[in-house]
Amino acid sequence: MTSPRLFSILRQGLHLIASVHTALDDSQLVRFQADLVERIGADRARGVVIDVAALDVLDSFGSRTLRDIAEMARLRGAVTVIVGIQPDVAFAMVELGMDTGSVVTALDLEEGLAELDRCLAASPLPGP
């Protein structure tokens, strides 16, 4: 029997949508990071949405990994938006002094894609 997917990475135009389906341990988070950064280059993605709506906990390693993914994506030419942070997770992150750094966040996938479009409109693709 096949085990359920822990995360998925789908392409939508110039963007990648990465959804975390369940809580990931540290090694799974590192795998997610490696897979996503690889796909950014392979798909020549300009934007990345990371959907964490399924997570009811986000520890310091997880939030640092998300910041690292966003920085790696930026170095590869893509903008990252994190979406779906649950209210209880946001509350706990603030209480514990954790943050997402300079990574843009949005309420849900729809708002995340709109934010990517705004960011990319502000810095269009370089011309020939």
UniProtKB/TrEMBL annotation:
Source taxon at top rank: Bacteria
Pfam families: STAS
Domain named STAS: residues: 32-116
Protein name: RsbT antagonist protein RsbS
Organism: Geodermatophilus sabuli
Lineage, opening ranks: Bacteria, Bacillati, Actinomycetota, Actinomycetes, Geodermatophilales
